[in-house]
């Protein structure tokens, strides 16, 4: 790089992370001459972090350390102080437990200078540790691999989907742009501080360039004793903080005159944030659920109806159900609706006029728009059960949905298994015919039961017709497919339902009532595998498979390591 060419200040924040801070700093230094300085802000660490930072600074003149006298309680204050102290014209942000991949700073800097951009954004990659998969964050927002950069010269108004990318990391900012528009993080003990910061950035209509390259490795350590803020979703404060942060982001967009973006941010909350937390409610305590419901209901009361109207049908129905009752109702059904894809499960209820509803009595809400959804987007339920042994078999049951499936004549179903361990998906080479059976009667009516009057949620009602099929699963094919990715590979089961006219509906297989079974599969003369059927966090049916003695030993060792890590913290 020639003298005088712009460079980057990488601002790294740290608190009590002596074991990992050196890796983060070295990943920034290894960016080469694109990085003029690595500015580390120690937010009042009480462990060995100060000593580690002193050694790093002594060994490289590009490392500067700012030490705060006491911990701020959040990430915003140290980031603000680092940005204010930066000397280079561009700034990037890095957390102490993450790293920058090689060439990230140069790639972003070149894009920013070539396009005269206020913000250059690349792909952040969620890396599950130890040994988990790499998952690009919001990859669909960015150009495909090898494609030209995407330039948004007047902000994201034409691409409101960028509101889903709330990460402040994975981007390069022109410091003069941040200063000119007063963009900063919320100070103090504030969580989800990225929400407000990125909203302020987007509200200022930056000249933004998006590139297809991975520029940030976001490390996720689910087995760590001290979880990152975004993983502490079992704490009610986490939800309250997220709601407050989202409200601040919407307010910032609205005050900047970006009403269309503010409305889009509200819709995004319903489609993404709300559904993510709803699908985890099954494992929460009654006290958590009651408080969560109150917080959510009060927040949703202030939403413009247009925000809900623009949301996914499942998000609209969940929103309506929360607003219809001052106490938690139909929680298990809301969890199914929050799954991806959404599912409506029996019993199916109707209002007095025959229209579909969710819930019963005063809490019944219309399932508006269900009759207009295309067949392939219907929230159908496919239940699954696994028989484990020398021959592994998955039995499926497809449920009718308010009379929409029968006329389309479901003919067959095939299975696809998808992995979160980085292994490619496995599609079974054959489909099985679907055999129809009539549902039980619900009294004088042939249709779903009505929910008016004193109807009870979950009462025994007509579930409609069903179709069943059984498909063999070659466990050892899955062992071979997953071996390169991890010693034990977790697979989720997906059903591809084919209709008489050739249309196909794809949905995740459901585990009704939950399941947890473990057994060995054996193939003569000496092949065996550990197989566990389990229920995923969103209620889906999953398989965990480890092949051979080495796989079983590695799985046992990994579990022991996670246990020891928890005990140490």
Would you tell me the overall average pLDDT?
A: 87
Overall geometry: globular
Number of strands: 25
Name of the CATH first level of the largest domain: Alpha Beta
What is the CA–CA distance across the termini? 45 Å
CATH topology (level 3) name of the largest domain: Spore Coat Polysaccharide Biosynthesis Protein SpsA, Chain A
Instruction: Provide the β-strand percentage band.
Output: 25-35%
Describe the structure.
This protein folds into three domains: 8-231, Spore Coat Polysaccharide Biosynthesis Protein SpsA, Chain A, CATH 3.90.550; 236-342; 377-568. It is 30% helix and 26% strand. The chain contains 14 helices and 25 strands. Strands 1, 2, 3, 4, 5, 6, 7, 8 and 9 form a nine-stranded mixed beta sheet that branches. Strands 15, 16, 17, 21, 22, 23, 24 and 25 form an eight-stranded antiparallel beta sheet that branches. Strands 12-11-10-19 form a four-stranded mixed beta sheet. Strand 23 and strand 24 form a beta hairpin. It is globular, with a radius of gyration of 26 Å. The model is unreliable at 441-447 and 450-462 (pLDDT under 50).
Provide the fold topology.
Blueprint (H helix, E strand, L loop, with lengths): L7 E7 L6 H9 L5 E8 L6 H11 L3 E5 L8 H10 L4 E6 L8 H11 L4 E10 L5 E3 L13 E3 L18 E4 H6 L12 H11 L4 E13 L15 H20 L3 H20 L7 H16 L3 H5 L3 H12 L6 H8 L10 E2 L5 E3 L6 E2 L15 E6 L4 E8 L10 E10 L6 E2 L4 E2 L1 E3 L11 E2 L15 E8 L1 H9 L4 E12 L4 E5 L7 E8 L3 E9 L5 E7 H21 L1
Parallel strand pairs: 1-2, 1-4, 2-3, 5-9, 10-19
Antiparallel strand pairs: 4-8, 5-6, 5-8, 7-9, 10-11, 11-12, 13-14, 14-20, 15-16, 15-17, 15-21, 18-20, 21-22, 21-25, 23-24, 24-25
């Amino acid at each position: 790089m020639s003298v005088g060419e712009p460079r980057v200040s990488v601002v790294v924040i740290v608190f009590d992370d002596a074991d990992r801070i050196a890796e983060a700093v070295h990943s920034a230094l290894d960016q080469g001459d694109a990085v003029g300085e690595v500015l580390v802000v120690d937010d009042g660490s009480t462990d060995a972090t100060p000593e580690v930072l002193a050694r790093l600074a002594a060994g490289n003149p590009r490392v500067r350390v700012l030490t705060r006298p006491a911990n701020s309680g959040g990430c915003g204050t140290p980031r603000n102080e680092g940005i204010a102290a930066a000397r280079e014209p561009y700034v990037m942000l890095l957390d102490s437990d993450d790293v920058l991949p090689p060439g990230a700073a140069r790639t972003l800097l070149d894009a920013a200078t070539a396009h005269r951009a206020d913000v250059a954004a690349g792909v952040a990659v969620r890396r599950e540790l130890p040994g988990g998969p790499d998952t690009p964050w919001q990859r669909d927002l960015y150009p495909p691999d090898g494609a030209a950069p995407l330039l948004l010269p007047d902000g994201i108004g034409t691409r409101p989907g960028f509101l889903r990318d709330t990460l402040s990391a994975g981007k390069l900012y022109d410091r003069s742009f941040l200063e000119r528009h007063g963009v900063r993080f919320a100070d103090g003990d504030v969580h989800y501080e990225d929400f407000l910061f990125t909203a302020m950035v987007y509200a200022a209509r930056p000249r933004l360039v998006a590139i297809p390259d991975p520029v940030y490795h976001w490390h996720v350590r689910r087995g760590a004793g001290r979880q990152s803020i975004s993983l502490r979703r079992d704490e009610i404060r986490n939800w309250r903080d997220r709601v407050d942060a989202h409200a601040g982001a919407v307010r910032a967009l609205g005050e900047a005159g970006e009403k269309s973006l503010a409305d889009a941010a509200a819709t995004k909350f319903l489609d993404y944030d709300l559904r993510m937390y709803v699908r985890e409610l099954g494992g929460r305590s009654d006290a958590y659920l009651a408080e969560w419901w109150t917080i959510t209901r009060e927040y949703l009361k202030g939403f413009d109806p247009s925000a809900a109207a623009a949301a996914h049908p499942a998000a609209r129905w969940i929103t309506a159900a929360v607003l219809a009752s001052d106490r938690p109702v139909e929680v298990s059904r809301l969890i199914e609706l929050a799954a991806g894809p959404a599912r409506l499960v029996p019993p199916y209820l109707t209002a007095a006029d025959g229209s579909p509803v969710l819930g019963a009595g005063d809490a019944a809400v219309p399932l508006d728009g269900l009759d207009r959804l295309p067949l392939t987007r219907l929230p159908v339920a496919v239940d699954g059960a696994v028989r484990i042994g020398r021959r592994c078999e998955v039995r499926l049951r497809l449920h009718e949905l308010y009379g929409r499936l029968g006329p389309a004549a479901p003919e067959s179903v095939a299975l696809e298994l998808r992995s979160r361990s980085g292994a490619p998906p496995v599609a079974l080479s054959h489909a099985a015919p679907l055999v129809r059976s009539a549902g039980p009667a619900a009294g004088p009516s042939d249709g779903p039961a009505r929910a008016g009057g004193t109807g009870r949620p979950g009462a025994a009602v007509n579930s409609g017709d069903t179709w069943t099929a059984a498909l063999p699963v070659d466990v050892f094919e899955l062992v071979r497919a997953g071996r390169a990715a991890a010693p034990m590979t977790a697979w989720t089961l997906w059903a591809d339902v084919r209709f008489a006219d050739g249309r196909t509906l794809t949905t995740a297989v459901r585990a009704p009532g939950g399941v947890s079974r473990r057994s060995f599969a054996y193939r003569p003369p000496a092949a065996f595998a550990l197989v566990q059927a389990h229920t995923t966090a969103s209620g889906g049916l999953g398989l965990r498979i480890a092949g051979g003695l080495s796989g079983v030993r590695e799985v046992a060792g990994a579990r022991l390591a996670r246990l020891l890590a928890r005990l140490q913290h």
